[in-house]
Amino acid sequence: MALSLGEGGGSRLRRQLESGGFAAGEYVKQLSQQSDGDRDLQEHRQRIQALSEETAQSLKRNVYQNYRQFIETAREISYLESEMYQLSHILTEQKGIMEAVTQALLLQADRDDPALGARRAAAADPFLPLSAKEAAASEEGRQRTLTTLLEKVEGCRDLLPESPGKYLVYNGDLVEYDADHMAQIQRVHAFLMNDCLLVATALPNRRGAYRYDALYPLDGLAVVNVKDNPPMKDMFKLLMFPESRIFQAENAKIKKEWLEVLEETKRNRALSEKRRLEQEALPRPAPAPSESTNPFEEDEEEEEEEPSAEEEVVDLSLEWIQELPEDLDVCIAQRDFEGAVDLLDKLNEYLGDKPVSQPVKELRAKVDERVRQLTDVLVFELSPDRSLRGGPRATRRAVSQLIRLGQSTKACELFLKNRAAAVQTAIRQLRIEGATLLYIHKLCHVFFTSLLETAREFETDFAGNNGCYSAFVVWARSSMRMFVDAFSKQVFDSKESLSTAAECVKVAKEHCKQLSEIGLDLTFIIHALLVKDIKGALQSYKDIIIEATKHRNSEEMWRRMNLMTPEALGKLREEMRSCGVGNFDQYTGDDCWVNLSYTVVAFTKQTMAFLEEALKLYFPELHMVLLESLVEIILVAVQHVDYSLRCEQDPEKKAFIRQNASFLYETVLPVVEKRFEEGVGKPAKQLQDLRNASRLMRVNPESTTSVV
């Protein structure tokens, strides 16, 4: 039987495989019985495989389509969640504003009509004491309740001294969760008093007994509502710089009560503190002078009373002073560093000539805590862990505010650390190209541009702090050492040619001169850091030239050069002219012959090339190294010519050797001496002595002595 692979057969096969009572074993058995042979089974297998691939493709398309719909739905849900959160935040702010306005209006009405305020308070709270006796009884009852509850908490007696104004406002059980992983930590019991919040943990073996855990003043406590995210719900967060804790209430109602009572208690605490400061600021009547017959005692009393009279002048009831700690918190939270420092400057200016009274000390303590917080935030802004993008100007804001806070030394240290990390990161991110010179161009551009920008920004930020400039010079030296490490690793450790090393050093020197625009000269530093590597490169290249010269000397046949073509002769003339040999034409013969040995010509070109590249690397610390290297190279050629003159017996070859010696002594050595003096700026006595010694050898060529 032939099984069709058509569309109709595929649909029948699909329906058969999709049927609920399909049995694979029975299907294969029936198929085997009905097939005519192996070919039918192969064709049926291909049909099933094609159907499988078609099903897989269809499944992929459906999954992709569903995935796209899922992504779009998730995006819409995210947008909706964000809008709902913003709406909830706006409603919470509106509620707080309306409550604050209502409270302010009620307080104003109470001041205008005290009797109306008392009736309203009595109507709002049926348990409000109506007489002095009842007030004393209520106060005593609150104290008794607080004492009874706190007797159940171990370790809090010494931390909560008894005071007539302290009483319990609210208490209840809570569950604490980890702020990072939202894992349950422990069950606690919180006691909210009119000035602080006490957190205690339950003792495992004693019912209704607790152990002291923490105590937080309400002045430095902030309450934040945590949005429900099942199964995490009915939670709120307490912020106490620099830590925070998350608690879960039993249900939404208790959570709402905690949030409301905490905000109300904080508000009442702030109002009572404001009233206390206003009362302290009021002038007090002077005590009646006691009768005394001692005149000096009156003078002492007057002197003692004068400071107290001055202390009474300090008025801390101004609205901006009362709200100063909260305003500083807002500025720090909103990263308005300039606004925070402006408030501090305003306070310092106001209290500059005022006496230091107890209220002033308390205010200073609160402000100093905010100053520490502000300093920590600014220090973090300048830390290398932060983003290094934006260049040196990105740090100006934090640096300027630290300087205004009197932290110039810390600002300088952090600024330079930040810039050092930025420069190091920029160097590490440079891609190492195949061509060394191209990489060095990029390296010098990145490093010296960063150094120049840092120097200009430092001069702008620390213009009035001359003591910080020494720190910048030290930083520049350490940065230059980091640059030289990267430079040497690419140029000298990779065994580049002397010409490449000379070009790279030349590029670094040219970029270093750009710093002179701002009065900063680091050339001597880069010289001191590179001198060891350059010495090694010069000595290595000197050894290569000496070995090459000795090898050519060993194969010397003292024959004239035949360049074969006029083009080759013209090229040699140009090379010798570029080396400074202007009279080379007198050593050329007929056609393409040169009346010099190949060894002497090659030595001349190699020696002059070495001198030119070495002069690019030259600075005073390398004077003797370069001079000694030249003398050693020249001595190899001089000794070879001297030895050949003494040993050669053929008159024609001896005359040819004298001609090469004449070219070497009268042309090459003066050119080397002149070019060295031009590049260095002073003559070299060692080269002059070497030339004079060569003249002695020319006078007495049969001498058995040689220059060493």
Automatic annotation (TrEMBL):
One Pfam family cited in the UniProt record for this chain: Exo84_C
PH domain segment(s): 167-267
Biased composition (Acidic residues): 296-312
Biological processes, Gene Ontology terms: exocytosis; Golgi to plasma membrane transport; protein transport
Keywords, sorted A to Z: Cell projection, Cytoplasm, Exocytosis, Protein transport, Transport
Annotated Gene Ontology cellular component terms: exocyst; growth cone; perinuclear region of cytoplasm
Main location class: other
Localisation per UniProt entry: Cell projection, Growth cone; Cytoplasm, Perinuclear region
Keyword Protein transport: yes
Disordered, as annotated region: 270-312
Compositional bias annotation for Basic and acidic residues: 270-281
InterPro entries linked: Cullin_repeat-like_dom_sf (IPR016159), Exo84 (IPR033961), Exo84_C (IPR032403), Exo84_C_1 (IPR042561), Exo84_C_2 (IPR042560), PH-like_dom_sf (IPR011993), PH_domain (IPR001849)
Top-level division of the source organism's lineage: Eukaryota
Similarity-based family: Belongs to the EXO84 family.
Role this protein plays: Component of the exocyst complex involved in the docking of exocytic vesicles with fusion sites on the plasma membrane.
PANTHER family: EXOCYST COMPLEX COMPONENT 8 (PTHR21426:SF12)
Protein name: Exocyst complex component 8
